[in-house]
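job 3f2a | input accepted
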Amino acid sequence: MIRALFSAATGVEAQQLRVDIIANNLANVNTTGFKRVRGDFQDLLYQTERAVGTASSSDTQVPTGIQVGQGTRPVATQKLFSQGDFMQTKNELDLAIEGRGFFQILQPGGDVAYSRSGAFKRDSQGRIVNSDGYLLQPELTIPGDAVQVAIGPDGTVSVIQAGQISPTEIGKITLVSFLNPAGLLSLGRNLYKQSEASGQPVNGTPGNNGLGTVAQGFLENSNVNIAEELVSMISAQRAYELNARVIRVADEMLQYSNRT
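job 3f2a | predicted structure (260 res):
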């Protein structure tokens, strides 16, 4: 009964974490470029009360034995980098990545972070920045007299300046990919950081070497499926209730044993 109390307590904690993950997914259902998180769990060690395969007589063996589990524990929260739906904005600096890849964002400390959010703007100097004013890398500056900005699927950025007819190329947006994007560290603000698990960033031109292409005038929505999250939340709630009930039952059994 004491074992049941501790096993059920691990189940309660696991379901609480699962609900926390679901809550964060639902909170970011409208966050551009957000990738949903899944919690992974595994069972704990088992206490062997009768070993499998031990002799039950001179010529027979125990076929299954007796092992009692000790509960569960969380082992990972995994980002799922499936493609989100696209939303057309017709804003010339809104970009979406069709396929694999991340934009490169220069942080104030000089480190490069990575993002799937392509809601870019111009700063006071005409440079392309994200919503926090962090520079897109490679750095691109739009001339002050530009009347139109065109960004091709391969990341080529061209502008038409006042009084001109032909576009002028001012640079190119490049993307990076990782062997294990799920190993990236989430920094918040739609940014990720390289880690030992993610591998080194591989820089390339959009549309080449497995990288996705760039779509101008679109944003990538969160890949959170509301119906799926609600079903998971109901499942987690029921599992939480059952584990809490096990704690109550084990407690009642202990009370009965103490009375007798």
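job 3f2a | The first strand starts at residue 37 and ends at 43.
job 3f2a | closed
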